[in-house]
Design a protein that fits this description.
heterodimer, A: about 450 residues, mainly alpha, ABC transporter involved in vitamin B12 uptake, BtuC, 2 domains, two-stranded antiparallel sheet, 2 strands, about 0% strand, globular, B: about 300 residues, 12 helices, about 75% helix
């Protein structure tokens, strides 16, 4: 049976909702470290997709996205901290039950934070009337730094000490609902006439003006919408961590978001999601030796997959390969992320090896190669070697074991060096970003997973 | 009035630090249109090379300066060949990302290699005829105007002026400088005129990185301590200064740097040190709104 678009969209939506609710219910029982990473992934997806609207789709380099995030984070946190209790109380008097009052207050605080950030977005967008390119980028950078410096002076939100005591409202479902909303909003905007106008600003501002497009207005709109979602992400972040510090929203945070967008592919929503996932998981994965090996293992799979992707038609499969690899990477690193104490290593690693092995094979099959058998053999060999490192350390020669122990001891210092090296290597390998401008549409999914049948073309 | 003059002098001295770093930024930007985020970290590496040359090889100040400049010139070429050249045909943002990657790599590699703790830089090395000359100049300034300015600061101001002048002369008068200007104006056309653009770009990195190293050594003499992330904030501010002056323009970098330095010190002196960065950036935004291509920038004519 084939599914037509009209039927499968509600089905997909229902499936996603069921998954979200299920994971949300299970979250308290899971490793809190893993839950935290997964929530950060969601927040970073919102940030990356919203920045992509400004930088990828509209072409305005923005080096101050963390500033918008800070505005949303601090305003919404301040609202729930100072007014949240009273508002919940007042809602109780109107007859709204307590379990509903909390989320209502949180939602209002989030929206107000987002709107305030959007207002800042308009302020930053207005100079686009006169400034272009790198000069505009510097203004966004300066604006972000100014916002941060102002927050450092605001005693009411803790100034440089940081703002603690924020109630925890953010859950898995809040985060991913907003992430989904961001993706849908940006996708629909870009598919609309307004979206075409935004893209025309990126492609050729002069030509767009000649065609009668008010380019300044559209740039300001892009900044406002992007900033709104960044503000929401900030609110979610503050209400998850229950603590905010101006140092969290420095220039480096903005750069991190730019990295996600460019790494995933400017102008690709799916790319931003992939970039957000990779750049959230990677620094965490590199914290332990097992995680580092998992990254190496994933990269080995990339090397194995690359030749298949280079074949004709490979570009379309690239998206599928990237997703499959992201799944491998997330799985491998999340499982190895559990490897925090010495004791847990033995129990976790076999599963890590086995799981990545299975997923890696699936990745190759998904990439749709018929000549993949020798590559699968390579992958299996890499997986076996990987497992051996942990499962049978006694077979290692003493020098290798010593190297492993040295790595284990110095892993935290090596972490960021390797992270930076990987970043450079990834950009050199895929200068246009992992997905380029490709999106994951039903058509692409069908070409990757032939299980979802394409409707047979009508024969003449 | 003396207070104002004092702040002005301190601002000019600190602005010269920005100017020294900004010169390299602006060179590279002019030729490649690339924000070389790693520039501030090359500055850090220069300081560390000099530190090790002085501590372990017992090099004098000038020998250490030369070693650091040579080392960083080499580093600059390696960075350009390894991380920037392969992406030259691609959108500028891709190179921007590798530049950030190189910057992170140098900062964290530095922490791994040199250790994260700040190290005392042997600033007592500034001796001999130059030092006594600078000291007497410093004393003369204090006697005549009441403004206190250290001899290291005078050295930085003088070095910034000399380097700016030298660079300007080099770019304006020599054949290689002419080639640099040609590549900056239009790389394709320069290539058609028989200029080896790859060599010229490498040359730009050699000069820019050597200047960064010199800045690193001179600033370390004044600040008297070095650490692996010392390049981060000055690098960012120097870049802002280069944009402020009109990026790609050599005297512009100097003007921008000094304006930033003076603005920061006036804010510290008359308002509050905690608003230092905010107001520096606010001034930047205002100047850019008035002069969208920087103070020395010419408005580009848009062709349809």
């Amino acid at each position: 049976m084939t599914l037509t678009a009209r039927r499968r969209t509600p089905l997909l939506a229902a499936a996603v909702v069921v998954c979200l609710v299920g994971i949300n219910a299970a979250a308290p029982g899971l490793n809190p470290y893993l839950v935290q990473i997964v929530i950060y992934i969601g927040i970073n997806i919102i940030l990356a997709v919203s920045l992509n609207l400004i930088s990828g789709f509209t072409g305005q380099l923005n080096l101050g996205h963390a500033g918008f995030m800070a505005v949303g984070a601090y305003l919404s946190a301040g609202l729930t901290f100072y007014l949240g209790g009273a508002t919940q109380h007042a809602l109780g008097h109107v007859g709204i039950p307590g379990w509903l009052a909390g989320p209502i207050v949180f939602l209002i605080a989030l929206l107000l934070g987002g709107l305030m950030a959007a207002l800042c977005g308009v302020l930053v967008g207005l100079p686009t009337l006169r400034l272009r390119g790198d000069y505009l980028a510097i203004v966004t950078l300066g604006f972000g730094e100014i916002l941060r410096t102002i927050i450092v002076q605001l005693d009411v939100v803790g100034a440089a000490r940081g703002f603690s005591g924020i109630p925890q409202h953010t859950t898995f479902i809040w985060t991913y609902a907003w992430a989904a909303l961001t993706i849908i909003a940006v996708r629909n905007l870009m598919a609309s006439a307004h979206g075409r106008a935004l893209a025309s600003v990126r492609e050729d501002e002069m030509a767009a003006q000649v065609m009668g497009i008010d380019t300044v207005r559209y740039k300001v709109i892009a900044f406002a919408i992007g900033a709104f979602f960044a503000g929401i992400a900030g609110g979610l972040f503050g209400h998850y961590l229950m603590y905010l510090n101006p140092g969290m929203f420095s220039f480096l945070r903005s750069i991190e978001i730019v990295l996600m967008v460019v790494l995933g592919g400017m102008g690709s929503i799916a790319g931003s999601v992939v970039g957000a996932i990779i750049l959230t998981v990677l620094p965490e994965a590199l914290r332990t030796l097992a995680g580092m090996l998992a990254v190496a293992y994933t990269l080995a799979w990339v090397g194995v997959l690359m030749p298949c992707l280079a074949r004709p038609g490979g570009a379309r499969r690239l998206a599928g390969g990237a997703i499959a690899l992201a799944v491998v990477a997330v799985f491998a690193t999340l499982v190895s992320g559990a490897d925090l104490g010495e004791g847990s290593r033995a129990g976790v690693t076999p599963w890590l090896g086995l799981g990545t092995l299975v997923l890696g094979v699936a990745a190759i099959v998904a990439a749709g190669t018929r000549r993949g058998v020798p590559r699968i053999a390579v992958g299996v060999a890499v997986g076996a070697a990987f497992c051996a490192l942990f499962l049978f350390p006694q077979i290692l020669p003493p020098s290798a074991a010593a190297a492993r122990d040295w790595l284990s001891a110095n892993v935290s210092q090596l972490r960021m060096v390797i992270y930076a090296g990987l970043l450079i290597a990834l950009m050199l390998a895929r200068p246009q970003g992992i997905l380029g401008k490709a999106e994951l549409t039903w058509r692409v999914l069908q070409s990757i997973f032939p299980v979802v049948k394409r409707r047979a073309p009508a024969r003449a | 009035m003396v207070e104002f003059a004092q702040l002005l002098a301190q601002g000019i001295a600190w602005g010269s630090v920005y100017a020294l770093i900004a010169l390299g930024y602006t060179m590279v930007y002019g030729v490649l249109r690339l924000i070389n985020f790693a520039h501030g970290d090359v500055y850090m590496v220069g300081a560390f090379i000099a530190f090790y040359a002085i501590t372990y090889a017992h090099a004098g100040l000038f020998a250490a300066l030369v070693i650091a400049m040579a080392g960083c010139a080499l580093l600059g070429v390696i960075i350009e060949r390894g991380a920037y050249r392969p992406l030259r045909a691609h959108p500028r943002l891709a190179v921007l990302i590798t530049a950030i990657g190189v910057s992170l790599f140098l900062e964290n590699g530095g922490q791994l290699l040199f250790g994260p703790q700040p190290k005392p830089f042997p600033h007592e090395l500034l001796t001999g005829g130059l030092a006594s000359g600078l000291a007497s100049a410093s004393a003369a300034i204090e006697r005549s105007t009441g403004v206190i300015i250290a001899k290291e600061q005078l050295l930085i101001i003088a070095a910034a002026l000399i380097m700016m002048g030298g660079l300007q002369l080099f770019v304006a008068k020599t054949k290689a400088g002419k080639a640099i200007r040609a590549v900056a104006a239009d790389r394709g056309a320069a290539s058609l005129m028989g200029i080896n653009t790859d060599t010229i770009i490498s040359l730009t990195f050699v000069i820019g990185s050597a200047l960064a190293a010199a800045a690193g050594v001179l600033v370390s003499l004044e600040v008297a301590q070095i650490d692996p992330i010392m390049g981060l904030m000055p690098g960012l501010k120097a870049f802002v200064a280069a944009v402020l002056g009109g990026i790609g323009n050599i005297p512009g970098a100097m003007i921008g740097g000094i304006i930033m330095g003076i603005a920061e010190y006036l804010v510290v002196g008359y308002i509050s040190s905690s608003y230092r960065d905010a107001i520096a950036f606010a001034i930047l935004i205002i100047i850019l709104l008035l002069k969208p291509t920087g103070i020395t920038g010419k408005g580009a004519v848009e062709k349809v």
